[in-house]
What does this fold into?
Amino acid sequence: MTSENVLEDRVASETVGKKVLIVYAHQEPRSFNGALKDVAVAELSQQGCSVTVSDLYALNFEPRATGKDITGSLSNPGFFNYGVETHEAYKKRSLSSDIIEEQKKLQEADLVIFQFPLYWFSVPAVLKGWMDRVLCQGFAFDFPGSYDDGLLKGKLAILSLTTAGTASMYSKTGVNGDFRYFLWPLQHGTLHFCGFKVLAPQISFGPETASEEERERMVAAWAQRLKTLWEEEPIDCSPSWYFGQ
Amino acid sequence: MTSENVLEDRVASETVGKKVLIVYAHQEPRSFNGALKDVAVAELSQQGCSVTVSDLYALNFEPRATGKDITGSLSNPGFFNYGVETHEAYKKRSLSSDIIEEQKKLQEADLVIFQFPLYWFSVPAVLKGWMDRVLCQGFAFDFPGSYDDGLLKGKLAILSLTTAGTASMYSKTGVNGDFRYFLWPLQHGTLHFCGFKVLAPQISFGPETASEEERERMVAAWAQRLKTLWEEEPIDCSPSWYFGQ
It folds into this structure.
């Protein structure tokens, strides 16, 4: 038995029964994003994890934050305040069923993987809508109950994303600036805010312009990383990580 | 006539006939965001501008980027690539009518105002969907044709947003970090990418926890700024503006 086998066996024994939620936002099952999602399902299942996928386009997931998200009566029907109404509805268990369903999956998860292509330096709208609607006050955060005390503390999160541009375009001197710059609203403003410990992002740069061999190598690198993901230390989610020299 | 009157008259004469598009994302017409939108319509109309509002929730604007955005046949029906298909559909004039409608408004506009409440350090999903779907390749950018050469060059853009947190929470030493950090994906990665000149953001901090007098003062400050907005120099949209000391 090689030392690598020993490590993998040790990791596997610790990960049996762990719950993983993959929030996946791509329209095409045969896409590169689809391949990254599939390999994550396969690898984590093989480790003994219980893996759930929220396939947002397949679900036709609603991104708009509206009054339809509250099934009961509004606390102030004459003046609609989305944050106030969803906070109240969460407490009264009167959020719409699609939000409740996602909150259940999220509540049970030890690790959440967000798999998406970068759209305008951020998540596609369907995934932004998942964040806007699912991560409501009372469930994901409260006051007090944000950042290190966020209500989802104890959970791990990781962004696994693909870009159109190359790695050099997303460097400090590249046209798009350092990739860490665009991660701030997602990793700090959203995930850290809700209490997640954030693992370093998995960024697959420019798969559309890469060769088939390079694409295969990127998928294999993700599968390989997942073997010991549970051992990783989260990033230090402070401004210096994002904007430091 | 005071010198202020003279200035306003001069500005007004230069702004007659200017076209403004307000992309507005709030569910409640009587909200603070609604008041900021209304005062902008009133002030800019009074200047002689032609003002159009895209009220995204009222339009039930579709945020999801899907195959429904292409009305003709797909160039590759067996493997859906949203960027490729919408680029092709733009050239063949076969994008869905709601996208075409927004592109027409945008094409005509000299100035675009985005009015929205900050959701997770970014725009609400309905507005993210407007960006994902309307700003397609061939229309808003191309290669070459990005950043200073973006296809929407010659136009001005400004983000007018409200926050839940206070200004001190959005300072370099505040829990949310400097407000400029979260502007990067929106101002640089989206607006600058498409060629817009970006004016300094109008941020109304914490209207929900402010007094009625403070809210009125914030609305009045926006109205006052709009009187001479056309005279403003755009920001220097470089990393140092966002992340410098």
